[in-house]
Write the structure tokens for this entry.
Amino acid sequence: MSPGAARILLSLVTDKRFWKAVGSALVAVVVIAVGIGAGCTAHNLQTYVDEQISHDFNEYIAPINRKTEGVKLNAELIYAAYSTLFDNPKYSNRNDVMSRLTKCAYTTSKRTEYKTDSSGQKIAHTVTVYLAITDNNTIFNHIEKEFDISIDSVQRQYLYDLSLLLIGAQPMTLSDGVSDYQEMVAQACGQNGIAQYSTLVLAVIQQESGGTGTDPMQCSESPYNTKYPREPGAITDPAYSIEVGVKYLASCIRAAGVKSPEDISGISLALQGYNFGNGYISWAQQKGGYTKQNASEFSQQMALKMGWSGYGDIDYVTHVLRYYNASGSSNGSQFTYPIQRGMYTITSGYGKRKDPITGEIKSHNGVDFAAPEGTPIYASDKGTVIYAKLGIAPYGGYGNVVVIQHSNSLVTMYAHCSELLVQKGQTVSKGQLIAKVGSTGKSTGNHCHYEIRVNNKDVDPLPYLQQ
């Protein structure tokens, strides 16, 4: 367990206010509390979330994520609220609670769009727009109203801290634009003494710009910018942006006293300092370190001082950390899911099942991740593409298929793709976009058939996967 995760867990289970807040809540946090002395780790919590809570929530969250414009739902906060406040006998109707909780994380509105018919006439259509709520307190307020309960500031902070533990379970991937900067970022990190934090820098770039524009790290206002005006978007050289941004983030990491890439508590302080600047890190250290509450307080103080309506992003830490593990910081040799969380439904697991085409009972050699046609498919780990085309023996029936070799004994396979984006012999990185979901070959609907083979023998993929 990382030091940051350990501190959060220990504070959760030793503070009496927490137990007063959760009452008879069971499972995830309680399992952690009981097992800490026996070597229980944050993995227990993530395993429970990955294998049960997220799976159960998927039928509610996935359809909304397919409709939302921009940012997806804050699933981790919903999981934290459910496992802490509602996973107990008082709320026996799990499906009802999950459906209502999911509704607390987004809003809808109506918008008029115009389409031109065959005669050239414009016809108005009213469409429903789905937007994820990005402010945690707004989500908490909606939960309070929906369930007629009260969640005070102490409870909200605990739930937020718990959601941070689950960030590592979210396989949000880096865009191609960000991945293109990997070599440049690694070099800049080495020059600034933070070589082990290059994946954190990539996560920052993903949040700041998605790898687009001339100032990918959005650092024109940094004190280290000496070539361009210190105003938003002034830097017009991506290489210089990374040079300045990495130097500034390195100073934040040192000021925050970050101990390692696993020190989420320290990294959180450094990240919020990168976003806020103006002495936030030293100010927060006097209050015991980073918290969402003091980030909000600092933002309000600075907005008042500047005469602005707002200051910085008080959810910046959460926004960046959702990409951090996806960029390979702490998953080690564990494999990530081939499709982003919230964008799929597992329709068939590994093992015996009734064949959907023949109706016969047969072995299913992988796991089927159902998703709309064109949904991105990502490499579960780095490796070399050994097959990428319409499948023939020994891949007959799989349609368009990609096979990646990760070691002498282990490969992953991604089948029924609508489009292949890699070629045989190509080296791919963990989380790299390799194909898109389809229904080619022997298939009854759009999905990614995913297999892991060890020494050319298929195995159940789920134990190998870490979200």
